[in-house]
């Protein structure tokens, strides 16, 4: 198991390509879902947050429980605890069962403003048996922060965790 992350600079793809093997090392042999979600969000925030190379403000999971998304491990400011299906970016990603990239959260109909510092967002649904069981939510303090590179690698990263 890795004890420290090797944080690199460079383009986004190179950063993800460096991070993914390290995440695999962190997750190897550990079957506790909460521990694995916690390490994934911590590693992502360390790489792409203010201490790393980017402007990621908040990174975390919401898990589906009793027909709503419930806050799970995260890094960043305090967050909304429960989100209904179809509400905000997270609830919409869950309802539509697809990744949503939002360049300006203020222009997203029904956006839930957990933090006024959030300017853009990406939400990745996590599937088990073709059902959405969780979402990975990432907010940035900059507009238009996320693109298909983030989508590709974050979709790969969530498959590393056994939900």
Structure description:
- It is a single chain.
- α1 packs parallel to α4.
- The chain is an alpha+beta fold and 163 residues long.
- The protein is globular.
- The protein contains 4 helices and 6 strands; from the N terminus they run ααβββαβββα.
- The protein has one domain: Beta-Lactamase.
- Strands 3-2-1-6-5-4 form a 6-stranded antiparallel sheet, with helices on both faces.
- A hairpin with a 2-residue loop joins β5 and β6.
- The model has no long low-confidence stretch (mean pLDDT 92).
- It starts with 11 loop residues before the first helix and ends in a 5-residue tail after the last helix.
In short:
The chain has 4 helices and 6 strands; from the N terminus they run ααβββαβββα. By secondary structure, the chain is α+β, with helices and mostly antiparallel strands.
